[in-house]
Amino acid sequence: MQRVRCGLSAMLLGLAMLVTGCKDVAEAPTGLVYSSNPAVYTTRTAIPANNPTHSGGSIDSYSVSPALPAGLALNASSGVITGTPTLATATATYTVTGANSAGSATASISITVNDPVTLAITTQPASQWVLVGQTATFTVVATGTGTLSYQWLLGGVAIPGATSASYTTPATALADNGGSFTVQVVDATTASVTSAAAILTVSLAGPGTFTATGSLTNGRYSHTATLLQNGKVLIVGGFNGNSMSGAELYDPATGLFTATGPLTTARDHHTATLLADGKVLIAGGVNFVTTTATAEVYDPTSGTFTPTTGSLQAARSDHSATLLQGGKVLIVSGRNGATTYVASAEIYDPSTGLFTTTANAPLSPRATHSATLLGTGKVLIAGGFFQGNKLATAELYDPGTGTFAATGVLAAARSYHTATLLASGKVLVVGGATTTATELYDPSAGTFSASGSLVTARSQYHAAALLANGTVLIVGGVGTGSPAPLLSVAELYDPGTGLCAATGSMAEIRELHTATTLPNGKVLIVGGAGNTAYLASAELYF
Question: What pTM, to 2 d.p., does this model score?
Fold first, then answer.
């Protein structure tokens, strides 16, 4: 824009005035800005034109200092920045000056040039296992240059509308079983990559039903449930405001609980171990506020409890008790009170009724851990709690040598988890942490590896039971979050696929309950804490 200023020269010549002339005067430009600022570019990719705008007078020429990154150019007449950057350049500030005869305006532009991000899939879509009527969600995580685009395929054929990083199927039918899902990812450079295949497994809706059965005489949690050789289930002790001495028997034939016992010492957080002769060893636990070293044996024939000849060498609760192949029982660690952890282990000999401290102590004191008898005869001790921290360590007890030795480490530290011996000889470790990840211990390799994810994270106090078909029922417990909810939902882990799928839900939310597989294939869920403090109800899963 130009303004005209008339300079008037007057000269009196008689009565006449002579106008000598007028000339244009330029106005300086102001407010110079660029359409893209800051600007981030990628080498070997042409940039969109970065256009300037300004106010004030017109600009005759543009210049920049320092020089733009290699491959970029500033048009001296229009000020537009274009080009294809050739070298990665760290973030820097470039000053563009637009000038005319009256002055200039400047703009500071931040420019970064990166090498292209290699297109890659960092998390492959995982296979899914669902029941008929449920949906399945597949997710991919990828990195690349610029905005990524996605196309999901089923059996190599594009799925209409499935163009985001996640794809959720419609409600599944049995015909969907075995579907192979992949996803093609394309980035701004038009590079493309296709994921590994994720397989959809669809099972019939049953089993998956919980139904009510008879109720306990007294509600309780932190009790034990032991399947006897006669097919009945022995419920022992627990807590209902105080430690309990009551015991009850569940008869699958009638669906009823009847009193038996009682215990000679009330207790909760104890262990119950079925012995080779059909009797049950009850050891340790908390007696009101005191951790006890007492132990007793239940005789199903007489329905009575009798103190063992000797007591535990150390009072302990939240310990483990495992029947060894020779018929003796391994007692490991635990705690005496809230903060004192028991560093020792001991062996119970049913032939003498005595407990003997093992010559070698566990490598680490721990409580609320798991202990699983392996096919090798060794015992896997995993996870637990020690001095305010969950543990990821694990160790093996060898009855042949009487020693403990370190083995693989869990990916997630866990306590109050479950460990279930599978038909393959591997051990499934579930819950006890905020993660949904499950882990498998392989005795032949001595390592833990990731397996399928839980549908619902269970941070503690759930129960697990091995079903007759080899799947594992995972039920109830405490979820995650603040406050963490108590759960009624259940799911099944399939060792064949390594996947978890939701199944029926219990009638009540429960924690610190028990789950026992019956000879008829059903699973008995007993007691726990829930909507009422101490549940007397029981349910059957089938």
Answer: 0.69
